[in-house]
Structure formats: structure tokens, C-alpha cells
Specification:
Four copies of one chain form a homotetramer. With 326 residues, chain A is α/β, with parallel strands linked by helices. Chain A has a single domain (3-219, 280-308), classed as TIM Barrel (Alpha-Beta Barrel). Chain A has 13 helices and ten strands. Chain A starts with a strand and ends in a 5-residue tail after the last helix. The interface between A and B is medium-sized, with 27 and 24 residues. Chains A, B, C, D: Belongs to the shaker potassium channel beta subunit family.
């Protein structure tokens, strides 16, 4: 496992990291989570990604219990959370949902710290942009979390390049803590934002990337090539919105070809997809998701494939996927 | 009930809100206050307005007890207080009354938090301008309340446009928290400040408005058309200063005509007056005052009238009231 | 008693105030101090001046005990302390004496708060200039006391106009709390600094003055006209350095003439001298010192003389004293 | 003992000070450390240098226990620590070692405070430059330690002039606490950085110097002239990397000549070397290291030699050492 600076920061994150989206509490209990965190940590993973909204707070509770059981020194791991959607799905959700206003953010960080049983969270993200809150209000609140010692660094997730730059400039003008990293979707079929939209930000403001969905929600494992298998993420009721996309014929055909390339290199298609995201030097860490220990261990096999992605191999991969990517 | 951004901020307040001026402690005890807060909340009201000076602190005590009884999640409601007049009416009141100096403000916020039994107050206002304190001193103190986590946003009440802009510019220069909202009197007979004096501030600094006295202290209910009824606000000893104004013949005659328009639209004149204030897109929320539950529920009926205020109806209302307004 | 803004600030101080220099602990115990504080407070005095060095901390202890006994609401009085000389007179006094460095200042404020049993001190002063500490270091430390809530306003004592302006400019540049007031010696025989050196600062930065020694250490009471009376301040061993000055023949002769003017106006020379300092509109408050209640009450009689200081009277006073003043 | 301002700051440090590098915990236990601290303090030393990495935290523990036993008033001594290498030597040391990132620094200061049993540490240093962390991130974290009251002043150790200036400019731009002092190696055979590279910084930013290794790890005591004596620092396993340098023939020959000069002046070569460093007015304090009380007392004898370093003597010393120095 290699470690990379998170953007221009001095914080180093493992090239592969472990997220809890979808899986925790829903598919993974504290015992299983602890087992997987331990395995990842032993393999060199030092960054564990979370969010307030994952399982509506329960994902933070599970991860917090696992940290407590594992007793790692606090300097040895980096943990994140993200704010935007809130925890409430019913009743009057004004100021509790889909917002980055000061009221919500200042209460949200306290809730996350309590659920995770931590004194501070390393990375806090604005989980989505909020067009109804001025960027200055959000920047001030995120920076205040750092000043108050509740967080160390802050960033965004799925923000436009223009909004990220605006946030950075506002922080610079008012001498606040600047946004450091962005968490975008990034995989073989979703590349434009990372490769084009953000291009100037890497140099200009030192933006780091913690990318999610390297396997395109499982499409890049090949398991959706013949429909939705029972027990898969695509079979979850809450994930029904992505079923059509998972069964896209052209993409699944491309996956079949990628499987061959992976086999040539001595791996499988999931490992190839992860290695492909990991080979981008702008990516600080590729966040893996896993509902089973075996799956995590298989995914970590991507490390062996990364150095095999020669320019020639990358060209073959691009020919198959770029025309189908956005 | 609709929710509007408080000025340019990301905080959303209900278009109608509930204040405790005059009524709490004087006419309304904790039980009645709790009942009215609950009814307002159930109707969608999320902003509850208060001030240190209302019933000399007792209004904050009553509202705090009501919040405690109601057990709403803290994210679900927005509460305010205001500082200027202090709590003392006798003895040497230097630095305790009619001031916005640092000494008074830093002690006032602590007193309000204690009386309300809250960890923070969402909105804190400078209740009036203080020509004897530099705006910079006041801006620094109000901003410090936010930095210390005791408040979330700050604003002014009945300040001139020039002073509001000065406060905003000073905060911007020194990287402090900027004033966000103003609480002006605004009703059919009091319109100049909101409609003309503040005109540039809405765009330039994103000023929000939480308006008070939509019924002109009851004049716009029509109940003062034949004198001061016993038990009305105008009959309170402390309100004697406004009795003459409440019985102004020309205005009461206009009210009689407004009653007819209200009846045409299927409401009463109070509902019409509230709906009229509410229809102004510069107004973030119209603060209602009520001493009885029935009155509150009647006033909330204004929501049904708001969409009926067509340009034609508004023209008729203007013709009746604009010449009598300041 | 009238109240004046402390410089351009919104804080109001009584035109006459009470200091504890020399007297507390040395000549005045807690019981007597409490009695005099109560009498001054009843007469309208709201500012009580102190310093760490007065009786090496004991003056703060005595005043703190008096406050505790008197139970005044905290908003009703303004209290000060000052830092520079430290509390230690023997051993290695590096960084503990004659300094305004950060190390000393940050520890000094904590000591004063503890001795006075207060949560915050209204006014904190740099008791003298320190040419061996950069003004920026001192400004940052004084401002930090305010940010931390341990003090409300800060100022200087016996600083040059150039240093005061430098401190103000540094605070403005770095967005820190600015110095507000200066405590200079000011009496009929010591006028240049207040009347000439600081002239531009009143308008340019809104400097306020809390002046000390209105009676020129007793010279202006007339009691040193025939030598040093036993029991007087001049008889204290620690005050021996000023004995010669107290017996200056020309000045004592002028005092004899002033006594006649005072008698014409219905007062005594001490009252005249205090009234003279008080009549300067640049002076926010004249700090009185008293070792006995009767003396304090006599001095407060100056209030009656102030309005009698007509231009004609002031001219006569100037003719007598200006040639002998520095 | 004389006291000098630490650079342009108002903090005064003794010209000779005592460090705990190498010796504490390894060669010196708490009893011996307490004895040496007491002797140094009695001789006028007021600065005691430490670092997190010295004996991996144990040096801080030992010094903290000694302080506790000695019960000096906190204003009477200045204590330092330094951060960079971390405490861990095995396992995954990402973010725990060789870093000045925010995550490490914010945890490191808390650890040092706990080990030293202190409320604040006077001087905190970045123990080495970290090319993998932006200077802005480090400046913000170091300044935050001061804002939080955990430290009073911050500086660097073995940083380039360019990096020190960059840190100062960033702090000035963002109104943060500026770096004040640098801790460079400085002795007769290591002079370029102090005498040439930093030359402009003394005037431009008021940089102070706390220099280490005045005896070139013992070379300048003459004791390595005939090999590595048992029990010497050079005989420690952890110091094996410097053995070759300690036995450099040309330098040891120069030491033999220096011994003669020292003898002429009535001292020994170690005292001469310390006096030579001390005579540089850019040096705020020369940090001595000692594993035995007798050695410390001998080194303090350098004070008597300093005034004897006339221009003529300095020329003779330069002629012997400058050609061999870097």
C-alpha cells in the first residue's frame, strides 16, 4: 500500500481506502464492520470514509463502536463524515435536510462526534452543493469546525469546479480554513468531472480527490451482466433507482471485454477498475465499499494490478469505455 | 405554510411566525404560551421571536419553559432575542439601558441563554440603534457571540439603511460575521422604510426582513373603530402611548373599506393585512402576536388570502392606505 | 454625577471615579475600602481603578473582597487593572517585571481575575510602555485577553502619542481589538501630554482618558505648604521620592492663590483642582484617591464647582499655574 | 548571567541555557535532571530546551517531574518542545513521523502538555522542515496552538532562510502568530547558516536564535582527540553515525590549538567554544547539554571567557577553524 498526500496538504492517505456507504448497518453489523476495518488496516488502509446520512447515522455509530474495539492510536487512522441530507426523513424538515446553512452544520458536527465517540473528525465534507445557502455562510461554518478543534480539514463532494474555487477564494479573502479535497464519483464510465472540469483546480488550489464508486455500483464487477443477482447492492430496495443503469447492455458488453484484459494481467475486472482509478495521480485515494470480508480482500488485489497498467493497456481500456463514459 | 430564506442566508423561516412582544407574562402564562407555540408549530411556524426587554426577561423565561415542555428537536425551530433596553428600570442604569456597548452585550447574551435554558440562540438582534456606541464596537460584540457559539446569525431592528450598511462593511473589512436581517415595523400604514429606504440593501448585502406589527397594534383588526375595547392591547397601561394613533379616524375609515375587500376574498381585515405584508417578496417572515389561541388561529388564516392578492386587489388596497401611510 | 463615554467607545464612566493606588492595603483595609466604595457608588461613581502592582496584588484582593460584600450587579460597575511591573521584587525578575511581553501578560490577567474573584475585568491597561517588547506582541496579547472573554476593553498608561497610534494601527491592520483609553497623569502642574501631545489622537482614534493624580499627590490640597504632615501620603516611606516636589515653594505659593479662588467659588483648593481636570471634555473620568471616607466625600464636592469654572476663572487659574506646569 | 531578548520579541532568555537532548532518560534520570536543572537555575539559566523526540517522550516526562519537584513560579522559567519526528518507530508511521501536517501537530502539542504536566509550553518548534506539507498548513497549526493558549511563541529548527521567510509572510498575510525563533546548529565548525544564510532575517523579521551543539557533539571538548572514550556521547549506539566526524584529524588538530588559546584566557576549550557562540549578538541563547552536574558547571564557566574574546583572539580562532567549517 502506498500513501499519497491529500491534494496539496501534508496529510497522507492510503491509495485505497474503505467507505461505509450503503453497507453499514444495512448489510454489515458492528462485528462484521470491525473485522473488515481490521483487515483493511492490516493491509495498510488508513482512511475510513463515512457520512451522517449513511444508514441515517447508524453507519457512524457502527464505525465508532468498531474504532473503540480496535483501540488504534488516533494518529494511525483518518476518518471522515459528510453533511447535507440530515438525519430526518419525515415531519417538517426545513433546515434539517438538503442544506449547508450554519444552523444545520453547527449542530450536525456535534451529532457526528457523539455518534462516533470521537474528539475530532479528520475530514468533514459538504456532501452536496446547496444552491440555497451562500457559499460564504458554508465556508465560515466549515472553517469554524476546524477552529473549534472538532475537525482537521474540510472539503466538498460533487461540487462544481466553479463552486469549489469560489469557496477557496472566500476562505482566502477572509483568512478562514480553505477547502482541501473533493469527493467525486470516478470510474471508467464517469470521468469528465475529474479529468476535465477540475483540471485547473489541482494546480491552482491544490485540490485532493477521494473518489467514490470505483466499481460503478457493481457494474464493473461484471455481476450485473446477466441481471440483478439476489443479495447484491442492486437488489436493495433503496438502490432500485440505479437498476436500469446497472443493466445497460453496451456497458455490460464493455465489461465483458475488460474481463479479458484483467485476466491477461492476472486479475479480475473489479481489480482492473480499481487499479485504473488508482493509477490517476490526481486521485489521492480510491474509496472501496464492501459488504463482505472476502470482497474487500479481493478488491485490495487491485494494488498488484496498478503497476501493470502500461500506456498500451490504458489505451485498450480507453477504447472500450471512453465512448460510453460521461 | 411556505418557508423562505432569511435574506441571502441559507436559514429558512416560515412565512408567518410568532412573537411574544407585549403578550407573554403580561397576558399569557407558560401554559397558554405552550399551547399557542404548539398550535403554531403544528401549523408549520418554525420561527419564534423574543427579546430581552419583553416583560423584562419574563417573556424569555416563559418561552424557555414552553420549549422545554414541547421537546422539539433543536433543529426544528428558530428562536431569537434582542438587546438594547436592558432589564433594569430603576437605580443607576448607565451601561445597563439603551446601549449596544460591548459590556452590556456580552453580559446580555449570557442572561438570555440562561433564561431560555438554551445552548445557543439562532438570531440575535440589536433592538435599536445606539448613536452613542461606535458601530464597530457593536459589530465586534455581536460577531463574537457567533464565534463563541452562543448565537448563529445577527441582525438589527429599526436601524437606518446607512447604519446597516456601515455595520456590514465594517464586518466585511475586519472579517467578522456580518449582519443578516433587520426587524422593521411593516404594515399598510408604515411602509416607507421597507419599500424605499432599504431598497438597495436587499441586493447589495442580501438583507432579510422579519417584520413586526402587521396589524398596526390592532388597528388593522378593526377593533378600535369604536374606541378601545376592554382587555385589548390598547387598554394595557403600558400601551397608553399608542391609544391616539389607534383611534385615528381616517385610518379607521380605511380599515372599514379594507374589511369589505377582505370579505370579498373570504377573509377578515386582519387576515388581509397579514397577507398583504406576507406578499412582499423582500419579507422573510411576518411576525404575528397573539394573546389567545383563537386569535392566532384566525391570523394563520392569512395564508389562504395571500395568493388572492392579485395586482388588481393590491391596487385597491394601495388606493385606500398609501395616502395615510408613512 | 454625569457619565461620559470612555473616548469613542459606548462604555460610560462617571466623571469622577475612585482609584486604589497607594491607599489600599497600605492605609486602607477591606472594611474601610468597602465603606468608601459604597459611598462613592451611592454618589454615582461607577468606575473603580486598580492595578496589579498596587500593594503588590493586595489592592486587587481588597477590592475583590469589597465587591463580594457589596453584591452590586456586575453591569453596574466598571473595574480596571494594569500590567507592567509584576508582583515580584526579589529573585530573578526577568520576564516578571517591567515587561509587556506575551508570557507575562497572559499570566498576569489570570492572576488578577483570581485575586479580584471576577470572571472578567472591564478595562485592562499596559501600565507603562515597554521599549523592549515589540508593540505588535503587546497588542496581540492585550487583544487576546478580550477575545478570551477575560477583559472588555484595553488601553495604555503613560504611553507616548506615537506608541499609542502605532498600537492602534497594528490592531487595525491585523483586525485585533484596538486600544481605547490612556491613563495619563493630569493636573494643574502636569498638562502638556494631555493638552498637546495627545491632541490629534482624540479625533483620529477616539482615545479616551482616565486621568490620575488630580491633586498632584496632595500638593494641590495645600497640605504640604508647611512641610510634610505626619500620616500624609508624602510621609509614607515608599513615597519619599516625591517629597522634594511636594514642597516646591513656587508651586505651593500658587496653591495659596488657588485657595482664594476656590473660596470665592464656595469650595476648597482640592475641589477646585479636581473640577479643573474634570472640566476638560477630553477627560472621560478623573480618578480620585482617598485614604479616608471624609476625604472622598470632600473630593466629590468638586462636582459642584465644575459648572462654576467660567472662561474668566480658568484664565486666572492658568495665569497662576501654567508657567509652573510641565 | 545576562538575559537577551529572543529575537525581536519581549521574551528574555539567559545567554546560556540547558537542553535535554540525548542525555535525559538515556543517561540522566529524574533525580539527576532535577539536580542539574536546580544548579542551572541557581546560576541564572531560565530557558530549558526539550523536544518530543528526545528519548521518545521520556525527556519531557523527566523534565516535567523535575519542574514539579522544583516548584518554581511559572513566570520564572521558559520551556520548549519541538515537533516533527513523532514518537513511534515501528508499525505504520504515516502521519505519525517526519511530518508537520495539521493532524500530527494538533495531537502532538496535547501529548507534550500531558507529559510535561504543564498548562502551556513557552516555545514550540517545528523540529525540521517538512517538504511534503505546505508551509501555510504548518503555520496555521502552530499559530492555533498559541491562539488556544497551549503555547506562547513558535519557531523553527534547521529550516532554510527561504522557508522561514515564507512562514513569516504567510502568517503576516493571514494575521496569524508569526514564527519568532530558529534553532540552528552553531559552533566553530558549523557557521554558514547562522552567519550568512540567515543574515537578512535578523533585521527583516526579527528572528531570534537558540543555538544547539556549541561543542560539536563533544569534538570541541577535545575528548575525541585520541578516539572515542567509553561512556561518552560518541560511545552511545544511537550516536554511532557521528563517530567518524568526531575523529576528523584536521579538526582535532585545530582543537588542540584552541586548547592553548583557552588556557591563555584561563579556561578550557569547551568554555572557549561556548563563549565563542555566545559572543555572537545574533544568538539569543546557547543551549548546553550535560550528562553530569560537574560538566554543566564547567560549561557555565564560559561566561567568564566571553568578555575576553577580543577581536584579536577571535581572529586567531577564525584562522584555525574557519577553513574547516561549513
Amino acid at each position: 500500500m502506498q500513501y499519497r498526500r491529500l491534494g496539496r496538504s501534508g496529510l497522507k492517505v492510503s491509495e485505497l481506502s474503505l467507505g461505509s456507504w450503503v453497507t453499514y448497518h444495512n448489510q454489515v453489523d458492528t462485528t462484521a464492520a470491525t473485522e473488515m476495518l481490521a483487515a483493511a488496516f492490516d493491509a495498510g488502509v488508513n482512511f475510513f470514509d463515512n457520512a451522517e446520512v449513511y444508514a441515517l447515522g447508524e453507519s457512524e455509530v457502527v464505525m465508532g463502536q468498531a474504532f473503540k474495539a480496535l483501540k488504534w492510536p488516533r494518529l494511525n487512522y483518518v476518518v471522515s463524515t459528510k453533511f447535507f441530507w440530515g438525519l430526518e426523513r419525515d415531519g417538517n424538515t426545513t433546515n434539517r435536510k438538503d442544506t449547508l446553512n450554519r444552523k444545520y452544520l453547527m449542530q450536525a458536527i456535534d451529532g457526528s462526534l457523539q455518534r462516533m465517540q470521537l474528539d475530532f473528525i479528520d475530514l468533514v465534507y459538504c456532501h452536496r452543493p446547496d444552491p440555497h445557502t451562500p457559499i460564504e455562510e458554508t465556508v465560515h461554518a466549515m472553517s469554524d469546525m476546524i477552529t473549534q478543534g472538532k475537525a482537521l480539514y474540510w472539503g466538498t463532494s460533487e461540487w462544481s469546479a466553479a463552486d469549489i474555487r469560489a469557496a477557496w477564494e472566500i476562505a482566502d479573502k477572509h483568512h478562514l480554513h480553505k477547502p482541501l479535497m473533493e469527493q467525486p464519483q470516478y470510474h471508467l464510465f464517469h470521468r469528465t468531472r475529474v479529468e476535465q472540469e477540475y483540471a485547473r483546480l489541482y494546480e491552482d488550489i491544490g485540490l485532493g480527490l477521494t473518489t467514490w464508486s470505483p466499481l460503478a455500483s457493481g457494474l464493473l464487477t461484471g455481476k450485473y451482466r446477466s441481471g440483478i443477482p439476489a443479495g447484491s447492492r442492486g437488489a436493495l430496495e433503496s438502490m432500485s433507482w440505479m437498476r436500469e443503469q446497472l443493466q445497460d447492455p453496451a456497458r455490460n458488453a464493455a465489461v465483458a471485454e475488460l474481463e479479458k484484459i484483467a485476466a491477461e494481467l492476472g486479475g479480475n475486472v473489479a481489480q482492473l477498475a480499481i487499479a485504473w482509478a488508482n493509477r490517476n495521480p490526481r486521485v489521492s485515494t480510491v474509496i472501496l465499499g464492501a459488504s463482505k470480508l472476502a470482497q474487500l480482500q479481493d478488491n485490495l488485489g487491485a494494488l498488484a494490478l496498478t503497476p501493470k497498467l502500461t500506456p498500451e493497456v490504458l489505451e485498450r481500456i480507453d477504447a472500450l469505455t471512453k465512448p460510453l463514459a460521461k
